[in-house]
Amino acid sequence: MDAETTYFEANVQGIRMRYASSGAGAIIILLHGFPETHRSWDLQVPALVAAGYRAIRPDLRGYGGTDKPRYGYDIDTLGGDVAGLIRAVAAGPVVLVGHDWGGAIAWYVASRYPELVRRLIILNCPHPVLMARALVKDPGQARRSWYMFFFQIPRLPERWLTMREGRNITRLFRASSSGTRRPPQELVEYSRQSLLEPGAARAAIAYYRAALLDVFPPWRFRRYRRRFAPIEVPVTVLWGVEDTALSVRLLDGLGEFAPGAQVHRIADAGHFVHQERPEVVNRLMLASL
User: Fold this and answer.
1) Contact 62, 73 (CB under 8 A)
2) DSSP assignment, residue 5?
3) Confidence of residue 208 (pLDDT cuts 50, 70, 90)
4) What is the CATH number of domain 5-288?
5) CA 42 to CA 39: how far, in whole Å?
6) For residues 81-114, b (16+ Cβ closer than 10 Å) or e, as one string?
7) What average pLDDT does range 83-87 have in this prediction?
8) Strand order from edge to edge, sheet including 53-58
């Protein structure tokens, strides 16, 4: 990453959130997913800065340099963290970008706090309600999401993730990528080391534990569904079609929650589409802006 980066901290909802900032101009906030940190976006920052944006990339709750409390990994709290960050760094609505879990949080923030978002860009993350439906009604997606159910077991998943110096973290990147393109080894290694820090694996897995508690049993799902109003700001979805964890079928029904959303399916790319095909992702992101 060539753009000069400065690090700051914001106090949001009782935690210290560390974030990286590069460039000047209109603010674009980029939210990483599992099992990464703010460095997930290293390959996008130079293009965004060159286009005149200030690219802000937080470490989400429990990751990297941000606090790792034992609680607060439900979607309402995670969304509140990001809403607090937006209010701390911006005088008005921002462009919000999210991948994987960062995408789920971005969907929520755009729905729950529409005054804070002027455009939404999502990478390989279904709308949370569509994901919850698929876990119940789509056996194929339930098989792809085996790890979400495995992560419900107490303590064992943390040990599995960090055993042998985090070898399984590296395997997750390889298994979720396309056959010909993979995330840069430097970024994979940074993520591996970050997740080996005390409390980091527990926090990362807590996202999944809280998520299933939100939508099971069915009466909880009905209440969960009511949290998501249709999103009225422009929405762009970028999807690596060779994602082994999330089926492209999860885009079916998106119009219910994001009318008029533009969807770009990207060939020869898997779950980490922005690292596997950065030249395509950067071009499409800038075009949408």
Assistant:
1) yes
2) E
3) very high
4) 3.40.50.1820
5) 5
6) bbbbbbeebeeebbbbbbbbbbbbbbbbbbbbbe
7) 98
8) 5-12, 15-22, 53-58, 26-31, 94-99, 117-123, 235-240, 262-266
Confidence check: pLDDT of 235 > 90:
yes
CA atoms within 13 A on the CB side of 212: 16
286, 51 Cβ separation under 8 angstroms: yes
Tokens of 102: 């960062």
In angstroms, the CA 102 to CA 88 distance is: 18
Banded pLDDT at 221 (limits 50, 70, 90) = confident
Of 152, 173, 170, 174, the closest CA to residue 162 belongs to 170
Residue 4's Cβ-count burial label (10 Å; 0-12, 13-18, 19+) is exposed
CA-based R_g, the chain, Å: 17
Give residue-wise pLDDT tens across range 55-69. Answer: 999 999 999 999 999
Distance, in Å, from the CA atom of 114 to the CA atom of 127, rounded to the nearest integer, reads 16
pLDDT digits (tens, 9 = 90+) for 263-288: 999 999 999 999 999 999 999 999 99
* Amino acid letter, 58: P
| C-alpha closest to that of 256 among 230, 238, 274 | 230
Question: Got the DSSP string for 144-186?
Answer: HTHHHHHTTSSSHHHHHHHHHHHHHHHHHHHHHS-SS----HH
Q: For residue 84, what are its two tokens? A: 């607090």
pLDDT at 176: 84
> pTM here?
0.97
- For residue 189, give the DSSP letter: H
Domain-by-domain residue ranges, the chain? 5-288
Contact 95, 26 (CB under 8 A): yes
